[in-house]
Amino acid sequence: MTDSVIETVTIANDEAGARLDRVLAGHIATLSRSHLKTLILRGHVTLAGRTIRDPAAAVKPGEVVTVTLPPAEPPSPKGETIPLNIVYEDDAIIVIDKPKGLVVHPAAGHASGTLVNALIAHCGASLSGIGGVKRPGIVHRLDKDTTGLIVVAKNDTAHRALSKQFAEKASGPLKRSYMALVWGAPDRPKGTVDAALGRHAHARDKQSVRKDGRRAVTHWQVLERFLGPDGKPVASLLACTLETGRTHQIRAHLAHFGHPILGDATYGTGFRTKSSRLGPAARTALEALDRQALHAYLLAIEYPETGGVLEFHSELPGDLRRLRDALHTESREAGLTGT
Q1: Catalytic residue (one of 54, 91, 97, 143)
Q2: Domain ranges of the chain
Q3: Positive/negative CA dihedral, 264, 265, 270, 272
Q4: pLDDT in tens, 180-189
Q5: Going by CATH, does the domain composed of 175-333 fall within 3.30.2350.10?
Q6: Which fold has domain 5-69?
Q7: What pTM did the predictor assign?
Q8: Following DSSP, what letter does each residue of 143-155 receive, concatenated?
Q9: Per-residue DSSP letters for 189-201?
């Protein structure tokens, strides 16, 4: 058993009266608020020198909070031999080009067959133990049916460094960009969606723009515009770069912007009839897609060991490439020479 890791936080003046778990989550990037809540309830947190088990306790300026992380236990998810498309790997990190259908982390309905199960089998003993369980250091996620690049920490040092980057986002070299095939064509070449996101009031599996939500910013740029057989704009290929990283951010933002992602059954339901405006090849490719047309094609990080910047790229997978090529071909036939 290794010694426990201890994080110490001093409460600032502007944090007076805030919830203990919320304040700690703002200071300790390597632990989620839900995980901190669990640590508090289990007696691993002291406030002003005494153990406290109330996550909602109001903090006072100058108080010192100590969080004791128990030694890492063996992973509760089991290792499973699942093929991985490894883009890069060393002793600190591993970068995976995730296929569609692969869930990142075990959850309700997906207890096995996940990326975490695959990484436990692949990495063996070389795993991050942050948070009390030896498992791959998941610092960001991709939706089940979103393809593309995801980086995972293999040791505690890399986990802390990457978590800090993903927490700070806009202030460092971290860059995450996606390609999205969307309905319609924006009326300008590039722009930004700056709209706070929170859980949808009625659909618990969705995010929506809310005044009381968390700040969310997505920058987009038009790469291609496509015409339908009627000669009118029907779809576009966008490059979207995250400034923040909220759940379903790009999907929710593009739907709010009026250009939901092709094939998105959650955020693009009102656009299903638009498939009738596609030519036969594009319609067939879209029907075969059976997922949102979203791909994480670019990932840049500050390497935890040296501070240098590593940048990775991923080509559009076959299903999205077939859809894009069909749209492009039919657009040319409708009279578009290219944009």
Answers
A1: 143
A2: 5-69, 86-167, 175-333
A3: positive
A4: 999 999 999 9
A5: yes
A6: 3.10.290
A7: 0.76
A8: -TT-EEEEEEESS
A9: SEEEEE--EEE-S
